[in-house]
């Protein structure tokens, strides 16, 4: 009997890796320090990006054996505001992203992945903290250093379904604030890449902004928060151990849409180990994700240099475009100038590190 592949972290990366291994005839055991899958999140809405490839993200996930058994809503339209509050509306004939819910309740992405893993005979060991890297296994324990934070509220509302985003350093330093409404529930958050100490102040300003501009109305609001770890050069492998998702620093450097990176990298890590060829993980990564890593790093570099105005240029172009999905895809693909600027972006990101390390990661609550 082959020994099961040990996977640390039952997030989207770890569970996708486990499902891949199990569906290919292998055995996987997934450990998570939390008592339930999805407990890192709080019922907040997140967007599964559908603009970074020509094909649809749900088709890509299905090709990896991940069924869309979670609740999701396609979003083809968003209202965006520039730093001075000017409004732009972006419309696309195909979904720009799919809204999903994160957390422990039925219908969330997390619970759907958990069920698919159990159905594939993956063993789950919840409430189990792993302190040593599993040799020959997969590390998918999520962020280890804080490069960005998002804090916000989830709440009930009578507002109609919709998506709103604003890029302004006064509301979200080097980031953006968003309001997502779906079926009487909503998430409002500010996502920032610096000045974390004043996060609550930015959050309250974001609430005021959406009250004034989007007619925000809420009841039963609950505050939540979380962090993100982004690397311009993700760590993919140490010896025979593979790193997937945010544990490797794989994230969307510009906007923080990390779920797709987590699931794609988890699938590749699982496939590489199940094929008995861990080194092939690097090749799979280079073919599918490397150009996104580079483009994301360069986009972030330019955003930081240009300030909120840089986002406004992007927003204007997206709003004017007949095919905003395609326009965004090009921003997320590597081009000649991305190659040229990537080394600079890498140095710049090291220089700007917040220095907040999650070195006590196994004790975090
Ligand atoms: C507030 C917020 C909003 C976001 N919005 C979006 C969005 O709109 N779109 C998007 O695509 N992405 C978004 N993201 C990012 C996205 O959630 C992450 O990129 C994604 O969840 C990463 O998946 P992962 O599997 O790599 O890690 P995680 O989801 O962090 O899973 C890691 C798991 O490992 C477990 N773990 C940690 N340490 C140990 C240990 N030592 N032993 C055992 N288990 C351990 C944790 O409990 C956790 O369950 C958001 C993130 C936050 C915080």
Summarize the structure.
With about 375 residues, the protein is α/β, with parallel strands linked by helices.
Which class best fits the helix and strand makeup?
alpha/beta
As a percent range, the share of helical residues equals 25-40%
CATH architecture classification of the largest domain: 3-Layer(bba) Sandwich
Q: What's the end-to-end separation, in Å?
A: 36 Å
Give the overall pLDDT as a whole number: 92
Number-wise, the strands total: 16
| Tally of helical segments | 10
Spell out the helices and strands N to C: EHEEHEEEEHEEEEEEHEEEHHHHHH
Sequence stretches where pLDDT stays below 50 over 5 or more residues:
357-365
**Main β-sheet description:** 7 strands, mixed
CATH class of the largest domain reads Alpha Beta
Domains, number: 2
Q: Would you kindly provide a written description of the structure presented here, covering whatever features stand out?
A:
This protein has 365 residues and is of the alpha/beta class. The protein folds into two domains: 5-145 and 230-292, FAD/NAD(P)-binding domain (3-Layer(bba) Sandwich); 148-228, D-Amino Acid Oxidase, subunit A, domain 2 (D-Amino Acid Oxidase, Chain A, domain 2), CATH 3.30.9.10. The protein has ten helices and 16 strands. The protein has a seven-stranded mixed beta sheet with strand order 6-5-11-12-13-10-14, sandwiched between helices. Strand 1 (5-8), helix 1 and strand 2 (28-32) form a beta-alpha-beta unit. The structure holds flavin-adenine dinucleotide. Flavin-adenine dinucleotide (FAD) is lined by residues 8-14, 31-34, 40, 46-49, 129-130, 140-142, 150, 189, 226, 228, 245-247, 251, 256-260, 262, 361-362.
């Amino acid at each position: 009997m082959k020994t099961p592949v040990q996977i640390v972290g039952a997030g989207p990366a770890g569970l996708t890796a486990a499902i891949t291994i199990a569906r290919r005839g292998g055995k996987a055991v997934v450990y998570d320090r939390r008592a339930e899958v999805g407990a890192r999140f709080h019922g907040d809405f997140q967007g599964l990006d559908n603009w970074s490839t020509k094909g649809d993200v749900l088709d890509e996930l299905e090709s990896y054996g991940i069924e869309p058994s979670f609740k999701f809503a396609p979003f083809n339209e968003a209202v965006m505001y520039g730093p001075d509050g000017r409004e732009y509306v972006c419309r696309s004939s195909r979904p720009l992203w799919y809204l999903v819910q994160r957390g422990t309740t039925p219908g969330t992405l997390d619970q759907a992945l958990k069920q698919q893993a159990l159905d594939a005979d993956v063993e789950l060991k919840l409430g189990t903290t792993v302190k040593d890297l599993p040799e020959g296994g997969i590390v998918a324990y999520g962020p280890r250093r804080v490069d960005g934070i998002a804090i916000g509220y989830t709440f009930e509302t009578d507002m109609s379904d919709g998506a709103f985003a604003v890029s302004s350093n006064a509301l979200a330093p080097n980031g953006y604030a968003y309001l997502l409404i779906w079926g009487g529930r909503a998430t409002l958050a500010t996502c920032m890449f610096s000045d974390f100490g004043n996060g609550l102040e930015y959050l309250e300003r974001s609430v005021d902004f959406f009250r004034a501009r989007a007619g925000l109305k809420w009841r039963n609001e609950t505050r939540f928060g979380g962090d993100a770890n982004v690397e311009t050069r993700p760590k993919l492998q140490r010896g025979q151990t593979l790193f997937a998702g945010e544990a490797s620093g794989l994230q969307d450097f510009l906007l923080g849409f990390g779920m797709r990176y987590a699931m794609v990298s988890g699938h590749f890590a699982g496939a590489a180990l199940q094929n008995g060829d861990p080194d092939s993980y690097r090749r799979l990564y280079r073919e599918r994700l490397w150009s996104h890593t580079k483009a994301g790093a360069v986009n972030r570099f330019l955003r930081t240099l240009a300030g909120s105005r840089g986002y406004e240029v992007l927003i204007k172009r997206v709003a004017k475009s007949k095919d905003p999905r395609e326009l965004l895809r090009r921003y997320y693909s590597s081009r000649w100038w991305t190659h040229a600027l990537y080394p600079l972006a890498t140095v710049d990101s090291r220089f700007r590190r917040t220095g907040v390390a999650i070195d006590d990661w196994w004790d975090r609550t």
